[in-house]
Design a protein that fits this description.
The complex is a heterodimer of chains A (111) and B (112).
Chain A (H helix, E strand, L loop, with lengths): L3 E4 L2 E4 L5 E7 L5 E7 L5 E9 L2 E4 L6 E3 L9 E3 L8 E8 L6 E2 L3 E5 L1
Chain B lengths: L2 E4 L3 E5 L4 E3 L1 E4 L5 E7 L5 E7 L5 E3 L5 E5 L4 E6 L8 E8 L5 E3 L3 E6 L1
The chains are: A mainly beta (111), B mainly beta (112).
Chain lengths: 111, 112
Protein backbone atom coordinates (compact mmCIF):
# COMPACT_ATOMS: atom_id res chain seq x y z
CA UNK A 1 0.00 0.00 0.00
CA UNK A 2 1.16 3.54 -0.74
CA UNK A 3 1.79 5.91 2.09
CA UNK A 4 4.19 8.02 4.09
CA UNK A 5 6.63 6.57 6.59
CA UNK A 6 8.13 8.67 9.33
CA UNK A 7 10.91 7.41 11.56
CA UNK A 8 11.66 7.15 14.35
CA UNK A 9 8.34 7.36 16.19
CA UNK A 10 10.06 8.70 19.33
CA UNK A 11 13.34 10.61 19.45
CA UNK A 12 15.30 12.07 22.32
CA UNK A 13 17.81 14.85 21.85
CA UNK A 14 20.42 16.20 24.20
CA UNK A 15 21.09 19.91 24.43
CA UNK A 16 23.33 21.08 21.57
CA UNK A 17 22.76 18.06 19.34
CA UNK A 18 21.49 18.00 15.79
CA UNK A 19 18.95 15.29 14.99
CA UNK A 20 17.42 14.21 11.68
CA UNK A 21 13.85 13.04 11.22
CA UNK A 22 13.13 10.77 8.27
CA UNK A 23 10.16 11.04 5.90
CA UNK A 24 9.68 8.69 2.92
CA UNK A 25 6.69 8.44 0.57
CA UNK A 26 5.83 5.98 -2.20
CA UNK A 27 2.78 7.88 -3.48
CA UNK A 28 4.65 9.56 -6.34
CA UNK A 29 3.58 12.93 -4.92
CA UNK A 30 5.53 15.97 -6.09
CA UNK A 31 5.10 18.13 -3.00
CA UNK A 32 6.21 17.35 0.55
CA UNK A 33 5.83 19.29 3.79
CA UNK A 34 7.02 19.39 7.38
CA UNK A 35 4.76 20.64 10.17
CA UNK A 36 5.32 21.14 13.84
CA UNK A 37 2.46 20.53 16.28
CA UNK A 38 2.29 21.98 19.77
CA UNK A 39 -0.71 21.65 22.11
CA UNK A 40 -3.39 24.26 21.40
CA UNK A 41 -1.54 25.73 18.41
CA UNK A 42 -2.58 23.52 15.54
CA UNK A 43 0.02 22.74 12.89
CA UNK A 44 2.66 25.21 11.80
CA UNK A 45 4.56 24.87 8.54
CA UNK A 46 8.34 24.51 8.85
CA UNK A 47 9.49 23.80 5.27
CA UNK A 48 7.96 22.59 2.05
CA UNK A 49 9.20 21.31 -1.29
CA UNK A 50 7.26 21.24 -4.54
CA UNK A 51 9.92 19.59 -6.70
CA UNK A 52 13.20 17.74 -6.26
CA UNK A 53 16.21 19.91 -5.36
CA UNK A 54 14.01 22.83 -4.38
CA UNK A 55 12.42 23.82 -1.07
CA UNK A 56 11.03 26.91 0.64
CA UNK A 57 10.81 28.15 4.20
CA UNK A 58 7.49 28.00 5.94
CA UNK A 59 6.31 30.07 8.87
CA UNK A 60 8.76 28.75 11.49
CA UNK A 61 11.91 27.65 9.60
CA UNK A 62 14.49 29.06 12.04
CA UNK A 63 16.57 26.31 13.62
CA UNK A 64 15.59 23.71 11.02
CA UNK A 65 17.04 22.52 7.70
CA UNK A 66 15.83 20.16 4.96
CA UNK A 67 16.97 18.55 1.73
CA UNK A 68 15.10 17.09 -1.26
CA UNK A 69 17.58 15.02 -3.25
CA UNK A 70 15.00 12.39 -4.21
CA UNK A 71 11.29 12.68 -4.92
CA UNK A 72 10.51 10.06 -2.28
CA UNK A 73 12.49 11.56 0.60
CA UNK A 74 12.32 14.83 2.57
CA UNK A 75 14.40 14.59 5.78
CA UNK A 76 14.21 17.32 8.44
CA UNK A 77 17.18 18.24 10.61
CA UNK A 78 16.52 19.94 13.91
CA UNK A 79 19.67 21.89 14.67
CA UNK A 80 21.09 23.10 17.97
CA UNK A 81 19.89 26.58 16.98
CA UNK A 82 16.29 25.50 17.59
CA UNK A 83 15.83 26.56 21.20
CA UNK A 84 12.54 24.78 21.88
CA UNK A 85 12.47 21.63 19.76
CA UNK A 86 10.23 19.47 21.93
CA UNK A 87 7.13 18.87 19.79
CA UNK A 88 5.29 16.45 17.54
CA UNK A 89 6.55 16.61 13.95
CA UNK A 90 4.37 15.63 11.00
CA UNK A 91 5.40 15.05 7.41
CA UNK A 92 2.91 15.20 4.54
CA UNK A 93 2.80 14.94 0.77
CA UNK A 94 0.34 16.02 -1.90
CA UNK A 95 -0.42 16.44 -5.57
CA UNK A 96 -2.31 19.29 -7.23
CA UNK A 97 -5.53 17.29 -7.25
CA UNK A 98 -5.38 15.75 -3.80
CA UNK A 99 -5.49 16.71 -0.19
CA UNK A 100 -2.53 15.97 1.99
CA UNK A 101 -1.48 12.50 3.09
CA UNK A 102 0.17 12.56 6.50
CA UNK A 103 2.70 10.31 8.13
CA UNK A 104 2.17 9.02 11.67
CA UNK A 105 4.53 11.56 13.20
CA UNK A 106 7.73 11.74 15.25
CA UNK A 107 7.65 12.90 18.86
CA UNK A 108 10.90 14.72 19.69
CA UNK A 109 11.86 15.37 23.30
CA UNK A 110 14.86 17.29 24.60
CA UNK A 111 16.50 15.58 27.59
CA UNK B 1 -3.16 35.05 2.61
CA UNK B 2 -5.38 32.36 4.03
CA UNK B 3 -6.31 31.84 7.66
CA UNK B 4 -8.62 29.53 9.54
CA UNK B 5 -10.46 30.07 12.81
CA UNK B 6 -11.98 27.17 14.70
CA UNK B 7 -14.45 28.74 17.04
CA UNK B 8 -14.50 26.02 19.71
CA UNK B 9 -11.37 24.59 21.33
CA UNK B 10 -13.25 21.93 23.31
CA UNK B 11 -16.58 20.25 22.56
CA UNK B 12 -17.94 17.72 25.07
CA UNK B 13 -20.85 15.68 23.78
CA UNK B 14 -22.86 12.66 24.87
CA UNK B 15 -22.86 9.46 22.86
CA UNK B 16 -25.56 9.37 20.14
CA UNK B 17 -26.03 13.14 20.32
CA UNK B 18 -25.33 15.39 17.32
CA UNK B 19 -22.18 17.49 17.10
CA UNK B 20 -21.18 20.57 15.10
CA UNK B 21 -17.64 21.91 14.86
CA UNK B 22 -17.40 25.45 13.59
CA UNK B 23 -14.80 26.72 11.14
CA UNK B 24 -14.46 30.14 9.52
CA UNK B 25 -11.87 31.00 6.93
CA UNK B 26 -10.46 34.03 5.19
CA UNK B 27 -9.09 33.79 1.70
CA UNK B 28 -8.55 36.20 -1.14
CA UNK B 29 -8.41 33.48 -3.78
CA UNK B 30 -10.28 30.33 -4.77
CA UNK B 31 -11.14 28.27 -1.76
CA UNK B 32 -10.30 24.65 -1.12
CA UNK B 33 -11.30 23.46 2.33
CA UNK B 34 -10.58 20.35 4.35
CA UNK B 35 -11.41 18.67 7.64
CA UNK B 36 -8.94 16.28 9.24
CA UNK B 37 -9.16 14.08 12.34
CA UNK B 38 -6.26 13.18 14.62
CA UNK B 39 -6.28 10.39 17.18
CA UNK B 40 -3.71 10.52 20.02
CA UNK B 41 -0.09 10.19 18.88
CA UNK B 42 -1.09 9.65 15.27
CA UNK B 43 -1.00 11.60 12.04
CA UNK B 44 -3.94 13.36 10.47
CA UNK B 45 -6.59 11.52 8.49
CA UNK B 46 -8.72 13.25 5.86
CA UNK B 47 -12.42 13.35 6.75
CA UNK B 48 -13.66 15.31 3.77
CA UNK B 49 -12.80 18.09 1.36
CA UNK B 50 -14.49 20.81 -0.65
CA UNK B 51 -12.86 21.69 -3.97
CA UNK B 52 -15.88 22.73 -6.06
CA UNK B 53 -19.45 21.68 -6.87
CA UNK B 54 -22.10 20.84 -4.27
CA UNK B 55 -21.75 22.86 -1.11
CA UNK B 56 -22.76 19.87 1.05
CA UNK B 57 -19.85 17.50 1.28
CA UNK B 58 -20.09 14.00 2.73
CA UNK B 59 -17.06 12.34 4.24
CA UNK B 60 -16.02 9.23 6.07
CA UNK B 61 -17.42 7.95 9.36
CA UNK B 62 -20.78 9.70 8.86
CA UNK B 63 -19.40 13.25 8.88
CA UNK B 64 -20.54 15.99 6.54
CA UNK B 65 -19.74 19.68 6.08
CA UNK B 66 -21.39 22.60 4.37
CA UNK B 67 -19.49 25.26 2.48
CA UNK B 68 -21.08 28.69 2.91
CA UNK B 69 -19.36 31.30 0.80
CA UNK B 70 -21.36 34.28 2.07
CA UNK B 71 -20.55 33.44 5.69
CA UNK B 72 -17.03 32.15 4.86
CA UNK B 73 -17.74 29.05 6.89
CA UNK B 74 -17.18 25.32 6.56
CA UNK B 75 -18.82 23.72 9.61
CA UNK B 76 -18.50 19.99 10.28
CA UNK B 77 -21.46 17.96 11.53
CA UNK B 78 -22.35 14.46 12.57
CA UNK B 79 -25.93 13.55 13.53
CA UNK B 80 -25.01 10.88 16.09
CA UNK B 81 -21.55 10.48 17.61
CA UNK B 82 -19.85 7.40 19.00
CA UNK B 83 -17.25 7.01 21.71
CA UNK B 84 -14.73 6.32 18.93
CA UNK B 85 -15.24 9.86 17.57
CA UNK B 86 -13.26 11.22 20.52
CA UNK B 87 -10.33 12.95 18.81
CA UNK B 88 -8.98 16.29 17.70
CA UNK B 89 -10.41 17.83 14.54
CA UNK B 90 -8.67 20.33 12.28
CA UNK B 91 -10.10 22.61 9.63
CA UNK B 92 -7.70 23.69 6.87
CA UNK B 93 -7.66 25.93 3.80
CA UNK B 94 -5.37 25.41 0.81
CA UNK B 95 -3.67 28.22 -1.05
CA UNK B 96 -2.96 28.32 -4.78
CA UNK B 97 0.57 27.00 -4.17
CA UNK B 98 -0.99 24.00 -2.39
CA UNK B 99 0.13 24.94 1.13
CA UNK B 100 -2.37 24.11 3.85
CA UNK B 101 -3.11 26.52 6.69
CA UNK B 102 -4.68 24.88 9.74
CA UNK B 103 -6.94 26.06 12.50
CA UNK B 104 -5.90 25.54 16.12
CA UNK B 105 -8.03 22.42 16.40
CA UNK B 106 -11.16 21.33 18.27
CA UNK B 107 -11.00 18.54 20.82
CA UNK B 108 -14.16 16.43 20.83
CA UNK B 109 -14.79 14.29 23.89
CA UNK B 110 -17.67 11.84 23.63
CA UNK B 111 -19.12 10.58 26.92
CA UNK B 112 -21.42 7.66 27.54
Amino acid sequence: DGGITQSPKYLFRKEGQNVTLSCEQNLNHDAMYWYRQDPGQGLRLIYYSQIVNDFQKGDIAEGYSVSREKKESFPLTVTSAQKNPTAFYLCASSTAASGYTFGSGTRLTVV
Amino acid sequence: AQSVTQLDSQVPVFEEAPVELRCNYSSSVSVYLFWYVQYPNQGLQLLLKYLSGSTLVKGINGFEAEFNKSQTSFHLRKPSVHISDTAEYFCAVRSNDYKLSFGAGTTVTVRA
